[in-house]
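Give me the fold.
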Amino acid sequence: MMKTDSYGQQIYSENDIFELYMSNTNLKLKSVFVNKDIDFNDVLDIEDIPEFIKYESSNLSLQDFDLNNQNNWFMPDEYKNMDIALFVLNKCSNDAELQRVGTELFLFQERNMFTLLKYLKYLVDTMKQNNIVWGVGRGSSVASFVLFLLGVHRINSLYYDLSIEEFLK
């Protein structure tokens, strides 16, 4: 039976892998964490065999685990290398917006979230290019004016006087 570790990673047994591929022959996995060394090359007829990675528990804190993953997110180099602070600041049209964005960017930087902002910009651009519809805004994210400027949501937190602390709790 598949297990999930404290980081949310799914760890598969031999039976789990076998059942996955037998129930869905079109399944395409890039890599899979497994509970021991596995070689299915002789058992399963799979065109694109995933990389079976032997799972080893980690002593990383959840915060360090998240930072490691943020550094390995797939996004084109133009997004990885963009100056997200300058991009957002350039979208401001008055002093109140500049002040709010400056405050939020400081808070995002303090929490090492600039990579996340870059990824959100990439995600929004990709959805726009592919005509994918997403919601107008949900939960505490609407308290962020930076996310509004990036197009993540359509709720202007300055207009509704929403505090950024609601989002960054």
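The mean pLDDT is 82.
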